[in-house]
Amino acid sequence: MKRILFPTDFSDVATNAFVHALEFVNAVKGEIFVLHSYDLPPMDDQFFPENFNEVYDTMELAHFDLFKEEIPKLREVIEEHHFDNIKMTHRLMEGNLAENIKKAIEEDAIDIVIMGTTGASEWEALFAGTNSGAVILKLAVPMLCIPAGVSYKKINTIGFITHYRPEEKKALHITLEIAKIFEAKIKCLHIKNIHTEVTTGTIRVWDNEFEDEAITFFTIQSDQIKQVTLDFIKNHHIDILSMLTYKSNFFEAMFVPSYADKTPTDIEIPVLAIHA
Predict the structure, then answer these.
(1) What order of strands is seen across the sheet that includes strand 3-7?
(2) Residue 165 burial (CB count, 10 A)
(3) Cα atoms in the 13 Å half-sphere on the side-chain side of 72
(4) Residue 180 CB: number of other CB atoms within 10 A?
(5) Cα–Cα distance, 172 to 196 (Å, whole number)
(6) 124-175 tens-digit pLDDT
(7) Quick count: other Cβ atoms within 10 Å of Cβ 142?
(8) Distance CA 105, CA 153 (A)
(9) Alpha-carbon distances, residue 6 vs 11, 20, 132, 190 (angstroms)
(10) What is the pTM of this model?
């Protein structure tokens, strides 16, 4: 995981996430690609027949000027944290943020996306209403989501939510790859309730497959999924929570703030979202 994409809207939330991205890049001895995406408002040229192009050019120039003004601030963050050796590439893209993230992943061969989970304008739209988690749930690479106000701290323990399904093994291997970079251990949580059908034989197979790794499996019986997860994070000193995002409604309920209701997420640690 050498190539990290960092989308930014230059907000305080994004700048805070930038520190997390730098720490990750430094740990993997990789490089960071900074993406700033802007979306021009729709306009009808029949109402601006004479200066239509001029209006659009002015808007694009404003975004370009903002980009030029903000990049030195990112350089200051790099110098402040003594990461002067990190290679940083910049991309300024017009269009839909979600589509631009996907395009950048493909064109720059990105391994992981790291970004703040709240922000302004289009950023909030990505995680609100019917589009909740839209970017996270459709990416071809893992995304590390940094909640607003969460300062970076050394990664010692990674939590992993599991239902012991076959497709989750790939996600656990990806999590394990990241854990080894930081010399961290993994604690897997399975919440058992009336809807789960996991046999002891299945659990034993997982135990045997990962017995030589720094992974511990926990099973807790409860119908209070969110509260059990929050308690697990607190009691086991989890620094990052990792999970496969194939159940979008579960992911959104657990980790995505509801901007429509102005209710924040209860998760106060970074979340590693891995798409099925």
Answers:
(1) 87-94, 31-38, 3-7, 112-116, 143-146, 271-274, 240-244, 157-161, 185-192, 215-221
(2) 13
(3) 4
(4) 12
(5) 19
(6) 445 443 343 555 557 789 999 888 888 999 999 999 999 898 889 999 999 9
(7) 22
(8) 26
(9) 13, 10, 20, 31
(10) 0.82
